[in-house]
Design brief:
Layout: H1 3-27, H2 30-38, H3 42-70, H4 76-92, H5 99-109, H6 114-141, H7 153-175, H8 177-193, H9 200-222, H10 225-252, H11 259-273, H12 284-293, H13 300-328, H14 330-333
Helix pairs in contact: 1-13, 3-4, 3-6, 3-10, 4-5, 4-13, 5-6, 6-7, 6-9, 6-10, 6-11, 7-11, 8-9, 10-11, 10-13, 11-12, 12-13
Length: 338
Amino acid sequence: MNRKTRIWNGAVLLFCALSLLGSLLLVDRPAKLVGALRNAHPAFLLGAVGCMVGYWLLEAAGLHLATRRLYPAQRLKDSVTIAMIGQLFNCVTPFASGGQPAQVMGLMRRGMPAGKASSALVSKFIVYQTVLSLYSLAALAGRANFAQLHGITPLLLTGFAVNTLVMAGLIAICCFPSASRRFALWAIRMCARLRLCRSPEEAKQRALRELQAFYESFLQLRRSPGLLFLLAILSALQLTAFFAAPYFICRALGAGLTFAAAVCAGAFVLMISSFVPLPGGSGGAEGGFFLFFHLFFPSAALVGLALLLWRSVTFYLPIVAGGCFWASDKHFRLCQPV
């Protein structure tokens, strides 16, 4: 991520945060909003934060299991750090596209070969996307609580299709190594013609070597059904923790909703925001939350406050926490973007 991209992404995040806060202040008097926040049940707010902490720990556990199978020297402490750095880059890049490259770089700086690091992370991500698709499908099948919302089906189906296509694309890459090698060689040739690659032959050899290591590692993980099943369980728990965060926030503000309804609504919000090409799905996430969760509040001001708290816990808090891990990690400082 170059300096111009970092500035752009930071500007988008700042604009979205200020817009959200400004919209909230326009909906109702600040004194009334402060009063509502003071009356919020602190135990439920802590429950929302606990959901995110649980989400991070489950992410770190899955990453540790996947990487340690291929690289026994991997330490749990490093897995926690890499997981949190991934949270940071997922939040500040469009489509959460920066998380895995940053994690691969961090693992490489700790001595893990690039092919094994990529294979472990891609395998884990395939399991995560598969579970997410199944989770979304179950939420779509049980969306009776939101039957009164007209016109949402195309949005939900689009989000479901995006997640499913990502999963299918990753599986295709892993199952068709010859096509992947041809694509890699073609990309290097194009870069050489554009004079973006100074040593094309060396780049070709390095790419083929890393791809070979990637597929060998992927086959090793694929032959471990117990590990894949455990990763699937951890992914399901992860998603449940993430989707449960708005339940605790809504309950803290006095909204009456069931846990199942909150989880389904959280899954729908993620489906809608998944195809928004801005960091953190900004715009889609806020709009989706208001669309689904306003049904449980008596006023727009309260749902706006719930939205602000939800984004603070599930989006801005991971940026702060991940940024602390990133800034304090001596290995990762070596690969900070310039």
